């Protein structure tokens, strides 16, 4: 358990529930559930930023996570996500997954990590610069107060 860390709201968060398919034979979350939670939150944020074409154009090129505590079927979690860097063609995220109590308050940090996406246009097989509108919205989201 990671009791030393306090919950700090991030750039964007959402609450999810651990589904049966998120668990493994040991009865707690499977490690891939954390990636799914982070990506679901990223998708919700990109929709909120009115960047619906982001998916399919922003593959993950790096992913790192620290698993700090277990989550169980039916448990509510809050996923917090923030943009830590907007590069020419890359986007760096940091995230946390917190277990929630019955009142919806974060109690235990179950996972923390970071990942990087890059812009991949149809015109090239390698990373390409973010379109100006995307860069503007992503930079504003990264600079938003937390």
TrEMBL record:
Keywords from the named record: Hydrolase
Record's protein name: Acyl-CoA thioester hydrolase
InterPro entries from the UniProt entry: HotDog_dom_sf
Pfam families per record: 4HBT_2 (PF13279)
KW Protease (keyword) present: no
Lineage, opening ranks: Bacteria, Bacillati, Actinomycetota, Actinomycetes, Micrococcales
GO molecular function annotations of the record: hydrolase activity
The keyword Hydrolase is annotated on this UniProt entry: yes
SUPFAM superfamilies hit by this protein: Thioesterase/thiol ester dehydrase-isomerase (SSF54637)
Organism: Rudaeicoccus suwonensis
Domain of life from the UniProt record: Bacteria
């Amino acid at each position: 358990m990671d009791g030393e860390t306090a919950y700090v709201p991030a750039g964007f968060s959402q609450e999810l529930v651990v589904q049966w398919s998120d668990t493994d034979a040991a009865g707690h979350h499977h490690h891939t559930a954390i990636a799914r939670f982070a990506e679901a939150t990223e998708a919700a944020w990109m929709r909120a930023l009115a960047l619906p074409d982001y998916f399919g154009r922003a593959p993950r090129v790096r992913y790192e996570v620290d698993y700090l505590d277990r989550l169980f079927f039916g448990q509510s979690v809050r996923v917090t996500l923030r943009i830590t860097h907007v590069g020419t063609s890359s986007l760096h995220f940091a995230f946390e997954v917190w277990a929630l109590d019955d009142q919806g308050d974060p109690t235990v940090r179950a996972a923390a990590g970071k990942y990087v996406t890059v812009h991949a246009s149809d015109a090239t097989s390698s990373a390409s610069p973010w379109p100006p509108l995307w860069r503007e919205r992503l930079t504003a989201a990264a600079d938003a107060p937390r």
